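Much of the work behind modern protein science is quiet bookkeeping, done one molecule at a time. Below is the pair of lines this work produces for a single protein:

***
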Amino acid sequence: MSSLHADASIISHYPNGVADLVEEIDRLRKAMTETFLQEHSLIADSVMELSRQLDLKINEYMKQVLLSREGVR
């Protein structure tokens, strides 16, 4: 199970924007996994596109977490 798994009890501790990102990351991760299983290839265009989208969302998530930590200081 992913450490970012979109479990309702975990998500409720995040601010709204971050919770949405966690859900989107989980959705993209699942979609990428399913697509890989269908394509049997990590370099299939459809898998690569989902991977790029996932990377962008993870970067967004990391920025939000960093900003929220800096805001606490």
